[in-house]
Write a structure and sequence with these properties.
CATH architecture: Alpha-Beta Complex
Largest sheet: 7 strands, mixed
Helix content: 25-40%
Number of domains: 1
Oligomer: single chain
Number of helices: 8
Distance between the termini: 39 Å
CATH topology: Spore Coat Polysaccharide Biosynthesis Protein SpsA, Chain A
Shape: globular
Radius of gyration: 17 Å
Strand order of the largest sheet: 3-2-1-4-9-6-10
CATH superfamily: Spore Coat Polysaccharide Biosynthesis Protein SpsA, Chain A
Order of helices and strands: EHEHHEHEEEEEEHHEEHH
Length: about 240
């Protein structure tokens, strides 16, 4: 059993003046979050849980929107306060939803072609040499590989390899995430806690992390990225 977790409780500050980025619609009408989820094959998870902000729920009716998009089986956690970043949001989801077994964590601002997920701790990556369209490379996170091609470390916001992380992470068991989230939270203090920090802690403790290489990567981390891929009109139509 694997649970898909969608941490959508951020401020969406890199999308000023429009609805939260996960709520933007693609030219065909699908939510950005639906396209993000389509980066996984449906048979690679058994349960899907999303976290959203309380102020976004009040403004936009997120629960109803998510049920229309994904069906009644989606579970939605409404978080009342700011979290300390994506990994903290995931920890809230895990405890609230009593998640057990393997987990996959998907960001809402990246899309790619689905491929079978490893039955292991993993991070999905793309080789920047095969993606010349990417911009602002230095702002990404990078997977550093060992000689066997497995992930030795993940480095945030510093060019450290040819392999950037594309917003999909996996833990073979949720207990690995929770144990190393606690370690990462202590190390980060009041700073933002990324899922990569949790994976890095697990690797330092001897956990193996494999790399899943993806194709068809589309990065929409900022409003400018979205406009470049889908046009200014698509973002303008979502203005608040």
């Amino acid at each position: 059993m694997r649970t898909l977790l969608l941490p959508c409780a951020g401020l969406s500050s890199r999308y000023p003046g429009v609805r939260p980025k996960w709520m933007l619609t693609l030219p065909g009408g699908a939510l950005a979050l639906q396209r993000a989820v389509d980066s996984l094959a449906p048979d690679d998870y058994d349960r899907i849980v999303v976290a959203v902000r309380a102020d976004h729920e009040a403004l936009y009716g997120c629960r109803k929107l998510l049920r229309r998009a994904f069906g009644p089986s989606i579970e939605t956690l409404v978080i009342e306060r700011d979290t300390q970043g994506p990994a903290d949001t995931v920890a809230h989801i895990v405890r609230w939803a009593d998640v057990a077994g393997a987990i996959a964590i998907k960001d809402c601002d990246s899309f790619f072609d689905p491929a079978p997920l490893p039955d292991a701790n993993f991070v999905s990556t793309v080789d920047v040499r095969s993606a010349p369209h990417l911009t602002n490379i230095a702002a990404k996170s990078f997977a550093v590989l060992d000689r066997a091609g497995n992930v030795a470390d993940i480095v945030e916001k510093r060019v450290a390899s040819d392999h950037i992380c594309v917003g999909l992470y996996g833990f073979a068991d949720v207990s690995v995430f929770l144990d190393h989230f606690a370690v990462a939270a202590r190390a980060q203090g009041t700073a933002e806690i990324f899922v990569s920090h949790v994976l890095s802690s697990a690797m330092r403790d001897g956990a193996a992390v494999v790399r899943q290489s993806v194709t068809g990567y589309v990065d929409v981390g900022t409003l400018e990225d979205w406009q470049r891929h889908f046009g200014a009109r698509a973002a303008a139509s979502a203005s608040v």
